[in-house]
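Structure first, sequence second, as always.
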């Protein structure tokens, strides 16, 4: 017991090498700071007057704005089809680009 207490601050060679947990979902990107960090981006599609979420998409790095816009348009079209709304009456607004 005493030996465990004395050795608790020492580094054990049996431990795995340190790694970043978010390597698969994050990528280097611009955060507005001098230090390079990994970032994620989130795109949210919602109906304006009811604030109903139609979809939310996440991506690594600073994102793929064209791909996310295509996904948002596809989500809006399927929503309009489901509610039998004419696609010409849908307005898409981009904020934060």
């Amino acid at each position: 017991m005493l030996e465990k207490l004395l050795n608790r601050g020492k580094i054990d060679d049996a431990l795995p090498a340190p790694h970043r947990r978010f390597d698969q979902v994050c990528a280097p990107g611009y955060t507005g700071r001098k230090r390079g960090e990994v970032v994620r981006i989130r795109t949210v599609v919602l109906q304006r007057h009811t604030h109903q979420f139609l979809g939310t998409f996440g991506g690594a790095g600073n994102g793929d704005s064209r791909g996310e816009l295509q996904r948002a348009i596809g989500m809006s079209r399927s929503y309009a089809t489901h509610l039998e709304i004419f696609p010409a009456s849908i307005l898409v607004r981009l904020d934060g680009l």
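Margin note: The beta strands are 27-29, 37-46, 53-60.
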